[in-house]
Amino acid sequence: MTKLKIGICGWGNVATGLYEQLVGGDEIYADWEICCIGARRDNPKCNPGSTKILRDIFKVVDEDIDVLVELIGGVETAKELITMALNSGKHVVTANKAVIFEHGQELINLAKRNNVQLLFESAVCAGTPAIKMLSNDLIANKISKVAGMLNGTTNFILSKMEEGASFEAVLNEAQEKGYAEPDPSLDINGTDAAQKIGILSALAFNSGLPTTNFYIEGIENIQSEDFAYANDFHFTVKHLAVAKLNDRGLELRSHPVMLSKNSSLAGLKGVRNGIQFDTNLLGEFHVAGSGAGRESTASGLISDLYTLANSNQSNPMQYPDFSKKPNLLNFDDLIFKYYVYLEVKDEPGVLALISKIFAAQGIGFDKVIQKDQLDNGNVPIVILTDPIIEKEMQVALQDLENHPVILNSKIIRIEDL
Ligand SMILES: NC(=O)c1ccc[n+]([C@@H]2O[C@H](COP(=O)([O-])OP(=O)(O)OC[C@H]3O[C@@H](n4cnc5c(N)ncnc54)[C@H](OP(=O)(O)O)[C@@H]3O)[C@@H](O)[C@H]2O)c1
Hints:
Layout: E1 4-9, H1 13-24, E2 32-38, E3 52-54, E4 67-70, H2 76-87, E5 91-94, H3 97-113, E6 118-119, H4 131-137, E7 143-149, H5 152-162, H6 167-176, H7 185-188, H8 191-205, E8 215-216, H9 224-231, E9 235-246, E10 249-260, E11 272-279, E12 284-290, H10 294-309, E13 335-344, H11 350-360, E14 365-370, E15 379-385, E16 388-389, H12 390-401, E17 406-415
The chain binds NADP nicotinamide-adenine-dinucleotide phosphate (NAP).
């Protein structure tokens, strides 16, 4: 094991988690030294002992270190810090999916030019192996699809809502436990998962970083009742991010889905993340584990540091070459089966009206259930459709919403894994 001189930038949840694992860890870290910490203020949750503290995080680059661990989050300052470190001949390890998603291609190229490494295992699924596994261990495989529950906070919230808890109460709990991003709206609105699938897609399909704009939807409109209605069809609600390559091009999307309760990802609860890779040699291949939290993230960071310590300066990571980007398919042209929720006035002829509007777009029903009347006197109708093009469904939805007997509507796409 080579000696590794480490500088940590940032002193929040993840940085203190890493510090505690390193100072309290076993002998695999014996030859590693935390030389300094860039922290603009103390963190009452962690005592750094006699480790040198630099209030200006950029000064960490000037220290005698082999690797800078960037744990400040955000995009622009992080990019500046990583750029400075790579240009100074220091390796960089980061857990920051936002900066990799926005500037990954440029930063990876910069690392290559400076003959140093940029490693980011914890940027996707925290410590659950995904990045090095995709880049190295699956190298012999042709991958056709990557589908992941990639946001621990979202899965934590959805799992608790399935048990009956309210959205707001669970979000507070996720923040208190350190699972949520500093700005939790990025978890909730699907951006965090989208950035992670963008990174996995770049590694699996050379789709570039950042990728072209693609469809992103969060869990803001999911309600506890959706789980009860989904249960009638043996479905549950999850947030899924998907990258899928076929002859026509690349499908990339991040949104809530209905999953069969029999699928392997449906059973993952709490902050667990899971990914299904569809490959030519291994077939369907699954990885699942904790996707948020200081311990889990420390696990991924230490795996990157270990890789560096053992790499003997040879390239430990197969970076994409970004030369040939696949064509990104238009979301409106994709085909899904849908769960449709409609809250309607309790009047005769409403079902006939709904059937007529769907029929006009060529949308067939697989199942229709009229539920018990709500306290407000309205009636919920739940429909599962046959497969249909997204833009046809949007037209039907618009037509329904324009009609005064339809008081509320929602669709959730059904994912066949
Ligand atoms: N939390 C998780 O479970 C998790 C999992 C995987 C990856 N990550 C990633 O890990 C990174 C850190 O997350 P975290 O949860 O540790 O966040 P955090 O608790 O908010 O910590 C961020 C730290 O960076 C410092 N910082 C932020 N901007 C700075 C700036 N411009 N200059 C100097 N210091 C700055 C903050 O200082 P102040 O306290 O003074 O603001 C704080 O010490 C993020 O990229 C996140 O996406 C987190």
